């Protein structure tokens, strides 16, 4: 009996040791999730305390946390350093903007909000809505969420952290990250940066520049990770670079009513455009399907008419921006952009495109496009589409694409029509398509096709040179040219569209073939 007990005891010890080893291996392999608490502030008119109701605050914390803060935390997580959003604190900030909201000017309201936010980050005293959400924890990582005016508060808090801790190489700094939407301090697009250096004494607004993007330590590592989301044509975060483009400015002002208060999309929405990383900040743009200046007429003017107007008006509005600049590059407002020939081609291309868009919507058939235009691919209208077509025409017209003519005695006449079509017909027809002369292009194609057939027939009767060897030689000479044309036609991708496919060259080739 004693031997049985000793055997069982030995097995128990061995089993316990195995479990301990397995637990130690599990802890070493899978790092525990780090708790992240969101310090969430409201926008102008919403202090997240009275007069906001508890129902509103609950919905606000849920929507903004699920749509923006949660996805941001997921993006920052790594297998070695995983994070999860565990708490949401409704942080108080006055959110006044006299005379529209409250009795404080914009600057005074921001100053009071900054004082409270800095206290929350330092874990000293944090005024928050204790009836809704969570209380600030004693430890763990914070994510500061700012919307519109509170994004300005978050910007100033980020500046304070950089000014205090960067000279100390971030020794003793709190773990903080930022998520900003509708940020007036967005480096390229934020209205406070567009007019940096100005001051409005009536409203008490200081245009003090951009949200900082450099929070590096001595090892070159960014410490204050930030995600900045803007909605296209929101005047707070996507104000025109050329405000003397009056249509672009009027459209942005309309966007204050249609876009600034409607950040309803999720950061995980596939339509959201990833604009890249600049310093410690990752930028995203939420596209707008219809211009705000046209949205004002929704329900008044028939939708197909508004759709037909969108493409040409958007082409003009986009002339007030420079989408090739990174959103992380600080850019002040500039004088009126001088239109170029390319701009004129863009607007001219947008007119028939808009007509086809409106007719397709009216007919409830996306493929119903009587003018045979291609729908604009992307939120910036036909600007990039027309640019791609112009590049195709330039590539086709370059002399190195066209092979040196061979002596007539060595070239099989049966191949001449094929070479004429590749070398001469395509560039000319493509140019006409860009000018909207579709009918003229077809007639020209028919004439040249008839002439080519007659020339081929006459040449074939006059010559008796072997065809198979020469045809093989000619095909070998022609195929590289065609491949080169196709490869060169697909160049030059706009950085803001790098995640979107652009099959415009292939569409142009199909139009030519028809």
Automatic annotation (TrEMBL):
<feature type="domain" description="PE-PPE">
    <location>
        <begin position="88"/>
        <end position="322"/>
    </location>
</feature>
<protein>
    <submittedName>
        <fullName>PE-PPE-like protein</fullName>
    </submittedName>
</protein>
<feature type="compositionally biased region" description="Basic and acidic residues">
    <location>
        <begin position="423"/>
        <end position="470"/>
    </location>
</feature>
<dbReference type="InterPro" id="IPR013228">
    <property type="entry name" value="PE-PPE_C"/>
</dbReference>
<dbReference type="Pfam" id="PF08237">
    <property type="entry name" value="PE-PPE"/>
</dbReference>
<feature type="region of interest" description="Disordered">
    <location>
        <begin position="366"/>
        <end position="514"/>
    </location>
</feature>
<feature type="compositionally biased region" description="Basic and acidic residues">
    <location>
        <begin position="499"/>
        <end position="514"/>
    </location>
</feature>
<dbReference type="InterPro" id="IPR029058">
    <property type="entry name" value="AB_hydrolase_fold"/>
</dbReference>
């Amino acid at each position: 009996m004693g031997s049985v007990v000793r055997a069982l005891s030995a097995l128990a010890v061995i089993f316990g040791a195995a479990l301990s080893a397995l637990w130690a291996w599990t802890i070493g392999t899978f790092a525990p999730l780090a708790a992240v608490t969101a310090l969430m502030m409201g926008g102008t008119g919403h202090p997240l305390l009275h007069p906001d109701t508890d129902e509103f605050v609950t919905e606000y914390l849920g929507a903004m946390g699920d749509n923006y803060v949660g996805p941001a935390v997921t993006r920052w997580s790594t297998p070695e350093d995983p994070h999860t959003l565990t708490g949401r604190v409704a942080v108080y900030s006055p959110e006044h903007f006299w005379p529209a909201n409250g009795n404080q000017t914009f600057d005074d309201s921001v100053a009071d909000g900054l004082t409270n936010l800095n206290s929350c980050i330092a874990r000293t005293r944090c005024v928050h809505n204790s009836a809704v959400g969570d209380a600030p924890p004693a430890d763990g990582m914070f994510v500061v969420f700012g919307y519109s005016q509170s994004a300005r508060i978050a910007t100033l808090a980020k500046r304070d952290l950089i000014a205090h801790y960067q000279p100390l190489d971030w020794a003793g700094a709190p773990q903080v990250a930022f998520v900003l939407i509708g940020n007036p301090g967005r480096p390229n697009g934020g209205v406070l940066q567009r007019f940096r250096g100005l001051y409005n004494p009536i409203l008490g607004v200081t245009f003090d520049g951009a949200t900082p993007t450099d929070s590096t330590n001595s090892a070159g590592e960014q410490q204050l990770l930030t995600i900045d989301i803007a909605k296209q044509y929101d005047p707070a975060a996507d104000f025109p670079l050329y405000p003397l483009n009056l249509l672009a400015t009027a459209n942005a002002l309309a966007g204050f009513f249609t876009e600034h208060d409607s950040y309803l999309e999720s950061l995980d929405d596939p339509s959201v455009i990833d604009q890249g990383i600049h310093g410690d900040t990752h930028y995203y743009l939420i596209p707008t399907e219809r211009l705000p200046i046209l949205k004002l007429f929704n329900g008044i003017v028939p939708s197909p008419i508004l759709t037909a107007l969108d493409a040409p008006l958007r082409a003009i509005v986009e002339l007030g921006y420079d989408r090739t600049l990174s959103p992380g590059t600080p850019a002040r407002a500039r004088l009126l952009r001088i239109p170029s020939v390319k701009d004129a081609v863009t607007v001219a291309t947008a007119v028939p495109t808009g007509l086809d868009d409106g007719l397709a919507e009216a007919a409830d058939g996306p493929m119903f496009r009587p003018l045979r235009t291609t729908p604009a691919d992307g939120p910036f209208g036909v600007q990039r589409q027309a640019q791609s077509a112009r590049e195709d025409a330039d590539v086709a017209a370059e002399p190195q694409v066209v092979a040196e003519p061979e002596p007539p005695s060595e070239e099989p006449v049966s191949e001449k029509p094929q070479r004429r079509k590749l070398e001469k017909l395509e560039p000319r027809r493509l140019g006409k398509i860009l000018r909207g002369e579709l009918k003229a292009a077809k007639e020209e194609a028919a004439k040249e096709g008839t002439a080519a057939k007659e020339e081929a027939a006459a040449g074939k009767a006059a010559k008796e040179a072997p065809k198979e060897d020469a045809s093989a030689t000619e095909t070998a000479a022609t195929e590289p040219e065609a491949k080169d044309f196709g490869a060169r036609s697909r160049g030059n991708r706009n950085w803001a569209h790098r995640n979107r496919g652009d099959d415009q060259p292939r569409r142009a080739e199909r139009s030519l073939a028809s």
